[in-house]
Write a structure and sequence with these properties.
By secondary structure, this protein is mostly helical. It contains 17 helices and two strands. It is globular, with a radius of gyration of 25 Å.
């Protein structure tokens, strides 16, 4: 009897997954398109990375192209473009991490302190709107605003800057690029922090007020620790893409005059792979980019788990 009683929960637990599928078939049907998307567009194409080790010729196909091993990797590492690409990619990502990542957090914290529900909703709606504007439109507006007679140029000229086409000056490119990302994304990115704020127990604020903590100290000692796990997880995901930059925005904004500060790994892969049709070389560069991202994610996850006990796995 005792043995049977011990085995019964295991059987129920084993059948629980199937019962869940039977009881909630609609939910699993809704998940199928998402699963199919990742399988078709993310996992199946991974087979194509083998062309990084070949002199790939489309007419021959993957199976019949000549195998060259690490030839394309060696060519990339010894290329004159390699230092510039690594420098620009890291510089843009580090600046984006320093300026773009904290803005949604600060915005969520500030709106959390606003007592007027109407003002909070209006502010959220206004800041969400740029997220739904196409990147092509955003870049078109930025190109128009930063030309020699553009609105932004006129503002900077009034502050003492020379009148130039700002997107043709290498020193201005990264600042304009990151500024456009911050403006378009900070409102939408703050949603997850608002959701995390709603999960904080109100009794913690009551206890802090009883101890004499003001609004600022409540934000420091209650609000920030409450959303710290969310911040850590998103930070880890961001670090895991430190070698990736929005290639579409780069390509829409850069030009040969700004390659010195604007050309990154993703734009180089596009230019070499599609415009010059060096498919194997471009695949080798992309594979290098992905491997470095994975290593950064694993390292950041291990550090976070030891320091803060929050991690992805």
């Amino acid at each position: 009897m005792i043995a049977a009683a011990q085995r019964k929960p295991k059987k129920l637990k084993h059948n629980g997954y199937l019962m869940n599928i039977v009881q909630n078939p609609i939910l699993y049907l809704m998940a199928l398109p998402v699963i199919a998307y990742y399988v078709i567009f993310c996992y199946l194409p991974m087979y194509g990375v083998v062309i990084a080790f070949q002199d790939y010729v489309p007419a021959r196909g993957i199976l019949n192209s000549n195998w060259v091993g690490l030839k394309h990797f060696a060519s990339f590492f010894t290329s004159t473009y390699f230092p510039r690409l690594i420098r620009n990619t890291l510089a843009i990502n580090i600046k984006e991490l320093l300026f773009s990542f904290p803005v949604p957090i600060l915005f969520a914290l500030l709106l959390n302190e606003v007592r007027s529900t109407r003002f909070r909703r209006i502010s959220q709606s206004i800041t969400y709107m740029p997220h739904f504007i196409s990147t092509v439109v955003i870049c078109g507006l930025l190109v128009d605003f930063t030309k020699s007679t553009g609105v932004l140029t006129n503002i900077f000229v009034a502050l003492g800057m020379d009148r130039v086409n700002m997107l043709s000056v290498p020193g201005y490119f990264q600042g304009l690029f990151i500024g456009s990302i911050v403006w378009q994304s900070f409102g939408w990115d703050s949603i997850i922090y608002f959701a995390a704020l709603t999960g904080i127990d109100p009794m913690l604020y009551d206890a802090a007020r009883v101890d004499g903590a003001g609004r600022f100290r409540q934000a420091i000692h209650v609000t920030l620790p409450g959303i710290a796990p969310t911040i850590v997880i998103l930070m880890l995901l961001r670090i895991g893409s430190m070698m990736s930059v929005s290639w579409d925005r780069i390509i829409l904004l850069y030009n040969p005059l700004t390659y010195e500060t604007a050309d990154v790994l993703s734009s180089y892969v596009y230019r070499i792979g599609l415009t010059k049709m060096q498919y194997s070389f471009a695949t080798a560069v992309g594979l290098f980019n992905s491997v470095v991202n994975i290593l950064l994610l694993i390292a950041a996850n291990q550090i976070s788990r030891r320091v803060s006990e929050n991690s992805l796995w």
